[in-house]
Write a structure and sequence with these properties.
Blueprint: H1 11-23, E1 28-29, H2 31-38, H3 42-50, E2 57-59, E3 62-66, H4 67-75, E4 81-83, E5 86-88, H5 90-97, H6 104-111, H7 116-128, E6 132-134, E7 145-147
Antiparallel strand pairs: 1-3, 2-3, 4-5, 6-7
């Protein structure tokens, strides 16, 4: 079994990393630059720009994002959510939400996932990692998910 370690970063550490990366660029960043700054895939950054989570301006055929808009995006809590001094990923939020048994639909509504297929994919990965467990048989119609205490 592979060992899994969770690293919680203090708010100051994350802000310092992002500011260091932002200092490498001028006032205008492209989508690939935003992906590097946030530490996500380019496609993920592009999706956030297209959906309007990150403000952008299109000049010619190129999409530009201002530094302030990235900071606004982070401050709005779309990227990570603060719990005390720790930051939680979406998977961590799902596990925290499932301390009480929850259905797939409740989890999907809580996270804002748009498709059942994607929600099931995320839940399957969390079950494989041993962070969530079924309350019933895997394909039961009253299936709920609960966090595994470690």
């Amino acid at each position: 079994m592979k060992g899994r370690s969770t690293v919680y970063l203090y708010k100051e550490e994350i802000e310092a990393q992002i500011r260091r990366r932002l200092d490498e660029y001028g006032d205008k960043l492209r989508v690939a630059d935003v992906a590097y700054v946030l530490g996500v895939a380019t496609e993920c950054a592009r999706r956030r720009v297209v959906t309007g989570l990150i403000k952008s301006v299109i000049i010619g055929r190129t999409c530009y994002i201002a530094k302030e808009w990235i900071i606004d995006f982070l401050n709005e809590g779309h990227f990570v959510r603060e719990r005390g001094h720790e930051f939680l990923t979406k998977r961590d939020r799902i596990v925290e939400y499932c301390l009480v048994p929850r259905s797939r639909q409740e989890i999907q509504d809580y996270c804002g996932f748009s498709t059942v297929k994607y929600t099931r994919k995320v839940l399957t990965k969390l079950i494989a990692e041993g962070r969530l467990a079924y309350t019933e048989k895997p394909h039961h119609r009253d299936q709920k998910y609960i966090a595994v205490r470690s």
